[in-house]
Amino acid sequence: MRPFIVAGNWKMNKTLEEGLTLVREVLARFERTPPNTTVVFAVPCPLLQAISEVLRERQGFYLAAQNCHHEEQGAYTGEVSAAMLVSVGAQYVILGHSERRQYFRETHEQLARKVTVALRHNLTPIFCCGEPLAVRERNHHLPYVARQLRASLFHLSETDLRRVVIAYEPVWAIGTGKTASSAQAQEMHAAIRQLVAKRYSSETAQAIPILYGGSCNAQNASQLFQQPDVDGGLIGGASLRADEFSAIICAARST
Length: 255
Ligand code: PEP
Known about the structure:
Blueprint: E1 4-9, H1 16-28, E2 37-42, H2 48-55, E3 61-65, H3 82-87, E4 92-95, H4 98-103, H5 108-120, E5 124-129, H6 133-137, H7 141-152, H8 158-161, E6 165-168, H9 182-199, H10 202-207, E7 210-213, H11 221-225, E8 232-235, H12 242-253
Parallel strand pairs: 1-2, 1-8, 2-3, 3-4, 4-5, 5-6, 6-7, 7-8
The structure holds phosphoenolpyruvate.
């Protein structure tokens, strides 16, 4: 059975005090996560260590960073390495978010190296893919996402690919309030699984968790989560409030 994963991407939001308050409020609502459900907080780097201490010994709750550099270490002012993230308690790292691709010009090749370096340090990559609106309108979304996966993930061995979480996030749905329909999400998730089956095996395709992201909230989460190939969500704006994020976590339980 694939794990169900609800991951909150805080982006560049929350000071240390605000972040600690949010995490404590979410934890206060759950004695434990719903069965087979993993909850991940993807927080800004300066908050990682303090939040890691709050999450310690809370089963089912994990910590993520939102990026890491593709080199092990060196003269890259302002950057953060995979080893550093592990040293402050991160277990996951978001890679290839569309905001990083768009504003920081991250390339397929860099992302392939980031995935490799993250795995080398036992960080689980949450690898984001997804098409912009113009591509969707031309009905080219399936080959567009296939290219992203081939270019940045399919260099991995089968064993390593099984350590990756994929997040499908249509760019036109991120932060816009326009959610993909359940049918659109299911179509893409099934297509991703088929690609993985073709390149690796159907066992691996069935094992790999694929999350949906893009204006997912407490109202639409359970419908999206009911799709057979949707294994949870990567949640942006709606992860910034404890009540909303907790309701999304509960939606995982109700599917
Ligand atoms: C995201 O940025 O990963 C995201 C899904 O954002 P939002 O939920 O705000 O659309």
